[in-house]
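Hi everyone, sorry if this is the wrong subforum. Our group has a chain we'd like a structural model of before ordering constructs, and none of us has done structure prediction before. Sequence below.
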Amino acid sequence: MSESHPLLRLERVFKDYVAAEGAAPLSVLRDITLEVARGGSFAITGPSGCGKSTLLNIIGTLDQPTSGKVLLEDRDLSGLDEAELAALRNRQIGFIFQAHHLLPHCTVWENVLVPTLAGRPLETSECPEHRAERLLKRVGLDGRLHHRPSQLSGGERQRVAVVRALINQPPLLLADEPTGALDRASAEALGQLLVDLNREEGVTLIVVTHALDLARRMGRVMELRDGRLVRGSSFVDGPPIA
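Answer:
Right subforum, don't worry. Here is the predicted structure as tokens:
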């Protein structure tokens, strides 16, 4: 597939919720149409409760739109069953959340390798163990392999979560408020790490964030306003987002 071909497309995505029987539906997302080029980075900003996480969850197939299509590498995801969606999430989408969701009884090394245990073996030139070792060293955690999450700082735990999200070499990395639970210094370091890994690993990065400092590091910024995506400021050159 051409490197210029969109990795991700959303076509007229709507999302409504019904609060109670007989009540009018609450429209959260309205007519979201979007193209994301392979290897790009962009932030989705907006006030609390505006639907940013809902949009990210729909992109990541953790939620379904009321109508519209999500296509990843030209594959319409609406036709997949639950088993197929689970396999796709495991192999093609990496997730980072505000809470790291590390397994408390597992070591750093074990947490990172958990996603490699599901499904068929990876068809890559880099075996999971070598990739885990390389990425953990890259994020400064090669001395923490046998530590458990309770023995790590907040910033260290989130770096483990980043490596875990990347271990299966997904083309798409989704981060929902990844710096929200960190102190300022740790948040700045994690933001720079995400930008660097976006470039080094060639992964497409989509970040939902309230943090303007993090948003400014992305190639493009879009704001979710009244259920619609509107173009935000463009801070650096990057792949086009329609």
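For your construct planning: Residues 17 and 23 are 10 Å apart (CA to CA). Residues 6-101+169-231 form a domain with the Rossmann fold fold (CATH 3.40.50.300).
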